[in-house]
Design a protein that fits this description.
The complex is a heterodimer. By secondary structure, chain A is of the alpha+beta class. Chain A has two domains: 303 residues, 2-Layer Sandwich (BirA Bifunctional Protein, domain 2); 53 residues, Rossmann fold, CATH 3.40.50. Chain A contains 14 helices and 16 strands. In chain A, strands 1-5-6-12-11-10-7-9-8 form a nine-stranded mixed β-sheet. In chain A, strands 14-13-15-16 form a four-stranded mixed β-sheet, sandwiched between helices. In chain A, strand 15 and strand 16 form a beta hairpin. In chain A, helix 6 packs antiparallel against helix 7. In chain B, the strands form two sheets. In chain B, strands 2-3-1-4-11-5 form a six-stranded mixed β-sheet. Chain B is elongated. Classes of the chains: A alpha+beta, B alpha/beta.
Chain lengths: 389, 222
């Protein structure tokens, strides 16, 4: 049987037109970041596995390989952890805060479906060195603006808080394993399973309050409704910050796009404060996600608070669902003399035209046919000393 | 954003119970037939559309977002592995997943009235629910050869295709008629209200209204 040349599941080739669309989107988003003072950085695609391990991802979801010295390497499953590693090891003597942006491929061994592939491109920012609410505000507003810059008008950004939801769980459940189990049920939005677990292991009043908490979903008014659920200092402080955050977002004009939902926890374990996810119609997974992670850099030996987010390029392209346009060329040049052709082509390119050189010694009829197929608007014929059009 | 809801309902026995329940919860159900040839029922004024589909397809329709919410048995949901949100337990349509063996095998192997299930690691089990069976045996540290069948699973144990079966049991009469006995319960299942991940965020108002009606009804029944 003839061999079929395929690519591994969850990987994707990017064809003409598509590649341009993707490049334009990434450039637009990066320009937006740049206008806020974020500087682009890049990290390596391969990391030592023990770096990647720090983000609390399921080890079975990480692509691993072994180098010739026997080290376990991993294809990065996100860029935040590598950036934390890079800043802690290579940029620690610089003045804080850092505003860093990036784009790159990330890899996860996912169950493949639309919007969930094994290689995907992230574009994002990290604001390192500030624990001020202003930093949270900046990152959240930048996320909303980025979704709009990407051409998505109908979207919502849901905001959660680790200190509220996880803090409540830790206060209510004595056992670490139970907290983790409950956390996973909240992330999977399995309210039935959660209720069963809490019935068995939590005080009925607290269980009741917690179930109400994770089911709440709405504007800033729900912050007042949940304020009485716990007197824990971190819980109260977190809610006060969210109220402040909501006020700024409202005044900035994005009030209608945000809501609070305390079942949003994100699956990475490094988050320590506010977290958020952006949703758009037509795609079953968030188009962006992020939040505050104040302890991740500390793991790499450089104690600094941080906040950031990333957008999924493929998911945005799915949500936009645009027709793919293959780029046109302005001019096709036809001619027998190589020197004349390349010199003329340079001249036309210098005028800002997109010029393609004929490689087939085509007749005029063949050229016309080719131009139609390739969407080329004009023909330039060089013949001997006569220049014709 | 828009708050029109599309709701996926299962055909068959569970479908009838679901409709009665939704009617009691105050949703429009007039003229909806879980067994008719019509597969779509539209209630323009109330902003509700029902899709009638095979029970095993309810999680699929909801996962892919063509239905915003749906009602399905926990057994079907668990086996589908669909990535959906599970919002409420409707507490009807009870059944349970169980491991069953022939009466002879149980009598020959049980010790003090207990069947030593884990002794049967690396044996064969037949089931329609391979995912549930796989997870259950793994949780016991057992490695099993799982044989997928599409119906009459009891037969497999009866004629020796497998040592045991995993199946859903409601009263246990089918097992008894085939000379089988339950030796372990995996988990009980009832009907669940499920929601699409994105609909839950973007149409939260409409979905929450349905959840609240259902919870009020469940509280009344208690």
């Amino acid at each position: 049987m003839k061999k079929k040349w395929t690519i591994p599941p969850g990987m994707k080739d990017v064809l003409p037109g598509e590649a341009k669309q993707r490049r334009n989107l990434i450039n637009r988003l990066m320009e937006g970041f740049s206008s806020y003072g974020y500087e682009e950085v890049g990290t390596s695609s391969l990391e030592f596995y023990d770096v990647v391990e720090r983000d609390g991802m399921d080890p079975s979801e990480v692509f691993k390989l072994v180098d010739r010295e026997g080290h376990i390497l991993a294809l990065r499953p996100d860029v935040t952890t590598p950036i934390a590693r890079m800043v802690a090891s290579r940029l620690r003597d610089h003045r804080l805060p850092f505003r860093l942006s990036y784009t790159g491929s990330t890899f996860r061994y996912e169950h493949v479906q639309v919007g969930r592939q094994r290689e995907f491109t992230q574009v994002g920012v990290e604001l390192i060195g500030s624990d001020d609410l202003m930093a949270d505000v900046e990152v959240l507003l930048l996320a909303c603006e980025s979704i709009e810059r990407a051409g998505i008008e109908r979207y919502k950004v849901g905001i959660g808080e680790i200190n509220v939801t996880q803090g409540f769980l830790e206060e209510m459940l004595s056992d670490e394993d139970l907290v983790e189990e409950a956390r996973e049920l909240v992330i999977a939005k399995n309210f039935v399973g959660l209720e069963v677990l809490l019935q068995e292991h939590a005080h009925p009043n607290q269980a009741h309050a917690f179930l109400q908490l994770v089911r709440k979903n709405g504007g800033p008014e729900i912050l007042d409704e949940i304020a009485g659920f716990s007197q824990n200092t971190a819980y109260q402080a977190a809610i006060a910050s969210l109220c402040e955050l909501a006020k700024v977002v409202q005044a900035y004009g994005y009030g209608d796009h945000i809501f609070f939902d305390f079942s949003i926890l994100r699956s990475f374990s490094y988050y320590t404060g506010f977290v958020f996810e952006g949703y758009a119609e037509g795609i079953g997974h968030p188009v962006c996600g992020g939040g505050r992670y104040d302890r991740l850099l500390g793991i790499f030996g450089f104690d600094a608070p941080a906040v950031g987010f990333a957008l999924g390029v493929e998911r945005i392209l799915i949500a936009r669902d645009e027709k793919v346009m293959v780029d046109g060329r302005d001019v096709l040049i036809l001619g027998d003399d190589y020197t004349e052709v390349v010199i003329k082509a340079r001249e036309l390119r210098e005028m800002g035209l997109r010029v393609e050189v004929d490689l087939t010694s085509a007749s005029l009829a063949e050229a016309a046919d080719y131009m139609q197929d390739k969407n080329i608007k004009r023909l330039f014929v060089l013949e001997g000393d006569d220049y014709g059009k | 954003m828009e708050n029109r809801l599309t709701i996926a309902l299962p055909k068959g026995r569970l479908g009838g119970e679901v409709l009665d329940f939704l009617a009691k919860a105050g949703l429009p159900t007039e003229g909806v037939e879980p067994e008719s040839r019509t597969l779509l029922f539209d209630f323009e004024r109330e902003g509700v559309t029902y899709l009638i589909c095979k029970p095993t397809d309810v999680p699929t329709f909801v996962e892919y977002g063509v239905a915003d919410i749906g009602v399905v048995g926990k057994d079907t949901l668990e086996e589908s592995g669909a990535d959906v949100f599970e919002l409420a337990d409707l507490r009807f349509g009870y059944c349970r997943f169980a491991v069953a063996v022939t009466e002879e095998l149980r009598d020959a192997r049980q010790v003090d009235g207990k069947f030593p299930l884990t002794d049967f690691t690396q044996h064969r089990v037949a089931t329609k629910f391979t995912r549930v069976a796989d997870r259950y045996f793994k949780s016991l540290g057992m490695q099993m050869e799982i044989i997928k069948l599409h119906g009459n699973v009891e037969l497999a144990a009866r004629i020796g295709l497998s040592d045991m079966i995993v199946d859903i049991v409601s009263t246990g009469s089918t097992l008894r008629e085939n000379g089988l006995v339950e030796v372990a319960q995996i988990f009980p299942a009832t009907a669940r209200l499920i929601a699409n991940r994105v609909s839950y965020r973007l149409k939260n108002g409409g979905i929450t209204a349905v959840v609240e009606r259902i919870q009020a009804l469940l509280a009344e029944c208690e």
